[in-house]
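SAMPLE LOG
Freezer: B-3
Tube label: C17
Construct: single chain, 370 aa
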Amino acid sequence: DLDLDDAAEHGADNVEAAELFLKLATPATAPRSGDSGAFANNTHGNNGGGQRRGLLPPAMAMNAAFVKEHPVTAASMGMVLVLFLAGLVAREGMGERVTLILANTVGMNFYLWNFFTAGFYETNILKVLFDLACLASAGRMLEESMGTEGFAIFWVVVNGLNGLVTSVALFSLFVITRMETVLFMQTYGFGGLIGALAVGLKLIAPRETPLPTVPSLKCHHLPMLLGIVSLFCWTLNITAFAQDTPFVVIGIYASWWYLRFVHKGRDGLVGNVSEDFAFITLFPPACRRYLSPFAEFTYGVACLLGYFKERRPALAGMPSTEETPLVPASLLPQVHDPVAERRRAKAREQLDAKLAAMAAQDDDNWEDEE
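STRUCTURE (predicted):
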């Protein structure tokens, strides 16, 4: 048995060992000037000859700083965890109330919140861990790049479009097939928002390597890879990883559409006109030559309807097409605009038809005078 002095000595050693382990296990993050003392990692001082620790332990201080700096990412992580734990307690009840079931969402019960909650609900622990890892890394990067407000709007728009477009697709499928099972089909999962994160990384860091162990894998490959894997699991009926396949496909396209045409960056520019972020880059290279005419035709129709008038190709690094005193018009690069070409061709046809009608009228007048 140890006497009191030995116990006190061993107790002090244990405290010092525990403090050393806590310092090694917690990444050191220096407090910023704007942070309060509650978010500092360690605060030491003399208080009556003793040692005073910070208001929060190091691990809790780091988590509090993360929540303060990335509130949307932290709230999403909390939403995923809360819904997953609630599903473990009441799986059947949660499945009917938070997943996207057409009969419950817009049919018998009007659970309209399912448009939002279905995108955060998971039942597979492996997917939950994967979702949290993606949010902690990619979500943090996007929130820092887009700003908290911009990232929150992006998040809400993509998640809402996931639920809305999926519901419309399911209802259309029911109208075509008349299969009542479509009305009670459960769709849920974080895959749609993972697709949004992948598209965001493709925009802000297309040439970066997300996994150092696979240097050939770049961020601009992620949306295409995620879509292929999800469709592969859906084809093989791997239910655990294919429950959110509609969300994945819709989320990738919805996030690309938002970032391409709607999102207003911190530089004041709306959308993105880079060729590296074009629609066809979301598909494998072998498919792009076949999809390019369809994409150009759709964009041309949108321009004819009056959309995207303020978009300027010069913002994507293309040379300027404005004449200056040092650059005559004959030396300026010629930018091909299919919409303008069609308009000019139509104007020429109308002018030729009008000139022909005037010439025929003059001939008739000469014949009458004779």
